[in-house]
Specification:
By secondary structure, this protein is of the alpha/beta class. It has helices at 7-17, 63-66, 97-111, 118-124, 143-146, 173-181, 220-223, 229-233, 281-300, 310-314, 321-325, 328-337; strands at residues 2-5, 21-29, 40-46, 70-76, 81-83, 90-96, 127-132, 156-160, 166-170, 240-246, 254-260. A seven-stranded mixed sheet has the order 1-9-8-7-6-2-3. Keywords: Iron, Iron-sulfur, Metal-binding.
Length: 338
Amino acid sequence: MGFHVTNMQLSALFQTWQTNYDIYAPRNFSGGGRFSDTDCIRYGKIDCVDEIVFDKKSEYSFKEILTPISQTLFFFTEGETKEADAPKKGAVIFLRSCDLHALKRLDDMYLHNGPADYYYQRLRENIKIVLMGCAHSFGNCFCVSMGTNVSTNYNMSIDCQPDGTYLVDCKDEAWAQQLEAAETPRLEVIPSHVEENNVTVQIPEHLTAEVAKSTMWNEYDSRCINCGRCNFVCPTCTCFTMQDLFYSENGKVGERRRVWASCMVDGFTDVAGGGSYRKKNGERMRFKVLHKVLDYKQRNGYHMCVGCGRCDDICPEYISFSGCINKLDNAMAEVTEQ
């Protein structure tokens, strides 16, 4: 059900949402950039549509809404535990198509990869999705190559128009009724999406785990500095570790948290007895890349990577994930000849 919506009409819809939901969208954080006197576009809670940044890609993904960077699971004393309270409201989240596809990957890992993760599930069951149309491709995006440039599984879509109005496709019955009651003009709306990126990738159809034997990974031993930024901005990375925070000296009162972890940083593969796997950065790069474009697809039928390009955007050493993917064909040829 499509509508041509004014800023005032959309603001009225926002007020309705805020009764039961917090609203999250890409917004500008002034002075929050990685360098002095720079801003940062990332997800945060908003109160009005004017706070949403439509014309730039968020530097960080939406996943910290559903999987917080540091999340308290429960509090404990010597004799009892208390589960941390769930958020009192649900969430309306504004997502671009690639991130909406990434949400499906998070669901795979947290809901269908064995028993459902309770803490993720209780948040996931109370969200609504608003698809943000992409009028053009952003830097380093390769969503078309990954087949994630179009999405249909949303509650509402929104496209910002040059005159400050919005084209909306609404699938939520209650929201549609409110827009109809406001005598919002009706029309057919198809969410905008990109059909071509400046960056393209070609994943070899004959790709196998044998590519791990290629020498292509060696260059990342020196190039990568194992900072883990690529993992932390990625909307489909899901690894975390557990930490206990003690309030008392005897360690019997405190809280347990789960905190984001990264396969690219030191300590991730440490095991009992002092052992550690994948000590070289090239080995870590190999593990990450093949997880995104090989073994995940073997299990689920589609790639884990959604082509958002954030890893390329944020790498301080200018390592290109898309460029790495495009080296796989030659790498397969190398190991085949051996």
